[in-house]
Amino acid sequence: DGGITQSPKYLFRKEGQNVTLSCEQNLNHDAMYWYRQDPGQGLRLIYYSQIVNDFQKGDIAEGYSVSREKKESFPLTVTSAQKNPTAFYLCASTEGLYGYTFGSGTRLTVV
Amino acid sequence: SQQGEEDPQALSIQEGENATMNCSYKTSINNLQWYRQNSGRGLVHLILIRSNEREKHSGRLRVTLDTSKKSSSLLITASRAADTASYFCATDAQGAQKLVFGQGTRLTINP
């Protein structure tokens, strides 16, 4: 079945540590997106990529980094510069600006 | 930046009743989409309506779009307990290559 796989489902980060969230899709979609969701809130765009080896900052890119070396993969690194990283992170992909397909999310907690 | 604003923020109704959620946005759009999110899960695409459409149906869902008022509504008829979820509208501003999500409406269906 085609879809998006995010891993891990739960992630714990110590202060000052970088962590990487995985996002893999087998839908052959060109565009991929990372969103952050805080409790009871909507989604805020972190980074997005329309094509391999190219990506753009979203509204809250500070403290995050991404890469897009393969069409199927769009990993997100939460760096130590992100002072409040505890949130639910969602990855999505689409072919053109139609319905997005979302992964099941990664819940990141700072310990 | 939040393009869409949903209203109400929370809605609680009895099973079998109809549920109506509203979304307002600020800039000209190509299309507007509605998504559902069950607690702790990713978002699921429900329906897309283009800027030149006024109404669209999908099963028990009915979406309207009024571009002159920059607003949309989502009607769920004959609600079921399984409809309990958060509902988000999302818009793509003309010229943009990304969706911007609203804060969502939290819908509770009471048995």
Tell me what you see in this structure:
The complex is a heterodimer of chains A (111) and B (111). Chain A is mostly beta strands and 111 residues long. Chain A has no helices and eleven strands. Chain A has strands at 4-7, 10-13, 19-25, 31-37, 43-51, 54-57, 64-66, 76-78, 87-94, 101-102, 106-110. The model of chain A has no long low-confidence stretch (mean pLDDT 94). Chain B has 111 residues and is mostly beta strands. Chain B is 0% helix and 58% strand. In chain B, strands 2, 4, 5, 9, 10 and 11 form a six-stranded mixed sheet that branches. A five-stranded antiparallel sheet of chain B has the order 1-3-8-7-6, with no helix packed on it. Chain B starts with a strand and ends with a strand. In chain B, 34% of the residues are buried. The A-B interface holds A 4, 6, 31, 33, 35, 40-45, 48, 50, 58-59, 88, 90, 92, 97-105, 107 and B 1-2, 4, 30-31, 33, 35, 40-45, 48, 88, 90, 92, 97-104, 106.
Secondary structure topology:
The complex is a heterodimer of chains A (111) and B (111).
Chain A: E1 4-7, E2 10-13, E3 19-25, E4 31-37, E5 43-51, E6 54-57, E7 64-66, E8 76-78, E9 87-94, E10 101-102, E11 106-110
Chain B: E1 5-7, E2 10-14, E3 19-24, E4 29-37, E5 43-50, E6 55-58, E7 61-66, E8 71-76, E9 85-93, E10 100-101, E11 105-110
Parallel strand pairs in B: 2-11
Antiparallel strand pairs in B: 1-3, 3-8, 4-5, 4-9, 6-7, 7-8, 9-10, 9-11
Sheet with the most strands, sense and barrel status of chain A: 7 strands, mixed
Series of secondary-structure elements of chain A, N-terminal to C-terminal: EEEEEEEEEEE
Helix/strand order of chain B: EEEEEEEEEEE
- Decide which structural class fits the backbone of chain A: mainly beta
Q: Terminal Cα separation of chain B, in Å?
A: 37 Å
Class by alpha and beta content of chain B: mainly beta
**Parts with pLDDT < 50 across at least 5 consecutive residues of chain A:** none
Question: Please, how many helices of chain B?
Answer: 0
Per DSSP E runs of 2 or more residues, the count of β-strands of chain B stands at: 11
Helix content of chain B: under 10%
Average of the residue pLDDT scores of chain A: 94
Task: Please report the two chains with the greatest interface, counting residues with C-beta closer than 8 angstroms to the partner's C-beta.
Answer: A-B, 28 and 26 residues
Helical percentage of chain A: under 10%
**Straight-line distance between termini of chain A:** 35 Å
The averaged pLDDT of chain B comes out at 92
* Percentage beta strand of chain A: over 45%
What would the principal axes of the Cα set say about the shape of chain B?
A: globular
- The oligomeric state of the chains shown is heterodimer
